[in-house]
Amino acid sequence: MKHGRYFFRLITIFTLKVLLIALSLATSPVLAGVIDTLPQNCSMATSGSLAQGGTFVADDEILTEFTIQIGQSTEETARPIVLGTTDSGAPTTGPVLWEGPDVTTPFDGEITFFPDLPLTVGERYFIGLDYGFLTSVDGGIVLLGCRSDDPIPDGQAWRAFADGWDPFSENVDIAARIVMTPVQQSWQGAYSELFDDQSDLDLLRQYRDNFLIRKESGRLYTKLLYRSSEEALEVLLTNPKLMLRAEKLIEANKDAVAEVVSGNRGVIYNTDEIVSFLDAYARKSSAPLKLLAITVKREMLEKQEQGEPFLGLELH
Fold it and tell me: What is the domain partition of the chain in residue ranges?
C-alpha cells in the first residue's frame, strides 16, 4: 500500500509538471511579459567581482518571478537582488529595489524567486547575485549562468568591482527566465478581505521566499498558482463563503507560519478544516486548480499520517 501511494504521488507530481508547462505555453498574458534565455551556455566567473547579473527592459508592470541558473561545487553564499539602472544603462549602486533569500552552494541547477516588484514599462532593470557589495550578505563568488549569443534585446551582463560596474562583452546576457505581468488591481481588494493588515501579507511572502521555494513541491505549487492567479482570484471573489473561510484559516494559522519563518516549530491544529476548505475550493475550480487543491490535500493527509511536517508545518 505504501508503494502504491508513493507511485501515485510520483504520477501526480509528473502530471502537475506537465500541466505547468502547458499553462505557461497557453496563457498569453504571461507569455507577453516573458524573457527566457535558459539554459546557459557560459558562466559569469570574474575573479574579484562583488556582484554579477544582467539587465533587461521591462515590458509589463510587475516583476512576478525570475529564474537563474547556478553551477558551483564549492561552498559559498550570495543574495539575489533587483536594481534600477543609470541613464547610461549600467546598474545603480543602490537603492536595492528587492533582495531575496540567500543562495547557498554547492548547487547546480535553476532557482526561482518571486519579487512581486512594481516596474515601469520601458525602463531598464538589473537582476543578479550580490556577494556583499550592496547587501548585508557575507558572500563569495557564485557562478551565475549567462548566454553568449546576445538573446536579450537591449540587455547586458555586468559585474561589480570596488570602483563600480563593468560590462561583459556586448554579446553576453544573463541566462534567466524573467516573468512580468500586468497589475491585477482586484487582488488588492481580495487582500483587504483576507488580511487584517499589511504585516500578515508580508509574513506569508516571507514564508514563500525564505522557506516554501526551497522545497521542490513548494516551488511547484507556487509556480502553478502564479500561472492560474486570475482564476484563483475569481474563485474567491465569486464564492464569498470560501473567501470568509480562507480569511479565518489565515488568521488561525499565521502564528504557526511566523514560527517557521523564525526557524522554530510551527504547528497547525485545524488540519481537518484546511482539508475541508481544499475540497470546497476544488469543487469550484477548473481542472488545473482542482488538481492542485486535491494534490495538496493528499500530500497533507499523507504527511499527517506519517507524522512528518508538511512544508515545515506539523499537522494536528
Answer: 2-29+184-315, 32-181
Single pTM value for the model: 0.70
Residue 1 has pLDDT above 90, yes or no: no
Q: What angle do CA 289, 295, 298 make, to 5 degrees?
A: 145
Q: 196-208, pLDDT tens digit by residue? A: 888 888 888 888 8
Q: For domain 32-181, which architecture applies?
A: Sandwich (2.60)
pLDDT tens for each residue of 104-128: 999 999 999 988 889 999 999 999 9
pLDDT tens profile 231-252: 888 888 889 999 999 999 999 9
Q: In angstroms, rounded to a whole number, what is the distance separating the alpha carbons of residues 102 and 138?
A: 10
68, 176 in Cβ contact below 8 A?
A: yes
146: β partners: 42, 174
> How many CB atoms are closer than 10 A to CB 69?
22
